[in-house]
Amino acid sequence: MLNFLHITALVCSIFPLIEMTKIKRFYCIIPVALIFDFAMVIPCLLEMFMGPPTTVYYNFRNAMMDEKTNLIFYLFIIIAQVCFYFEIRRIKWKNKKSMNYNISQPSRIYNKIVNSRYRKQVIGLCYLVMLLSIIAVLLAPDPTYYLKLHSVYSTMSQTVYNYDKNIISIIQNLLLIAIVLLKIYDDQDSRIFFVTRILCTIGVALLNQKRTTVMLILGFCLVIDIAFKNKNLKKTMIKYIPAIILVAIYFWAYALITEKISYNQDWYYVINEYFFRNIHTKFSIYAELYPNKVHILDYPCQAILCDFLFFIPRSLWLAKPHNYPYYFIAGLLNYGNITEKTWIMPTSYYPEFVSNFGIIGLLISIFFTIFICRYLDKKDSFIKMGGIAIISVLQIYYYDDMLKILAMIV
């Protein structure tokens, strides 16, 4: 039965892909469904031939080996693919019925942004963010802390921790936005813009202390070049090969410098942890099936409250929930209570929906995805472009404030 569902999930994933090739216009559901396949379906395909990855996390192993968990996960994949398929079919049908149903093409959106009268002001703000990041480091309690990568076994002082959480976290998010904007406005492939983006990326890597951020930046730049600047796919991929190699080297060097390689040297698992999200989703399902064994949230919708009421100061709401990744890592490591840690594991909004709403959260997450895609398709220019980027990222990397930004856009 389990093998049958496994194969069915893979087969069902083919049909939305076939329908996508028949659509000439750009819709939000297309990149979102493709990223879902990357995060959830590809690991299923690898697992069929290579088996589940080896990991040091006991609860991950239990989740991957539990029959009920896998059964529910494969049903989730099947239902998601069926919903994506009929959503794409609905779009095709609506296009045939109404020629006035106009969806802006990515190139049109891009041209409108680049030729905006606020172009110079936005670029100026990006350079201002760079200056602010330098000032923020110089004013830090220990400026040298942000000049190198640190071992995962090292600890920071409370003053540095508070400064990092309240100031540096904001600066690094602004730097990320600046990098994306500079890439968007770099319509002439300027060397100055290129060097500026590299310097910003190095700055984010040192401030953020996470290698996934560098990969995320590279992915954003690639999507902008292909989807919005309408560059040739083959030539663009060839140009990105050196950058991909450098990021791969950095990925390995980071593991050695920070001693994170001591956690797990199985690269099959590392790929699953950093790029795919099937293990994380299975773990959230496992926690719901066996609450006496694993504990993530204290009550339903606990993390969702944090996402939508983040603007309330903790000083006024002492019992204010934390961001979901903190609960996730605490549950994975079998901590009795949530602990503020200097590191967390990247998750996705799919396991967060499960932890907040139970197993039914899997269905809610699918409907949420389709609803957001329909909403963004009605928008134009920057909101649509930014919304698609954020909802796509949330399927793979959710650390702290990404869902809050999406909530503000909606």
Description:
This protein is 68% helix and 0% strand. By secondary structure, it is mostly helical. Helix 3 (29-50) packs antiparallel against helix 5 (67-97) and helix 4 (58-65) crosses helix 13. Residues 100-104 have low confidence and may be disordered.
Average residue-wise pLDDT = 83
Q: Give the radius of gyration.
A: 21 Å
Q: Give the ordered list of helices and strands.
A: HHHHHHHHHHHHHHHHHHH
List segments where confidence is low: pLDDT < 50 over at least 5 consecutive residues.
100-104
Helix content: 55-70%
**Alpha plus pi helix count:** 19
Strand content: under 5%
Gist of the model:
The chain is an all-alpha fold and 410 residues long. Helices cover 68% and strands 0% of the residues.
What's the layout of helices and strands?
Blueprint: H1 2-12, H2 14-20, H3 29-50, H4 58-65, H5 67-97, H6 106-114, H7 119-138, H8 158-184, H9 191-208, H10 211-228, H11 233-257, H12 267-274, H13 278-289, H14 302-308, H15 324-332, H16 349-357, H17 361-377, H18 381-394, H19 402-409
Helix pairs in contact: 1-5, 2-5, 3-5, 4-13, 5-13, 5-17, 7-8, 8-9, 8-10, 9-10, 10-11, 13-16, 16-17, 17-18, 18-19
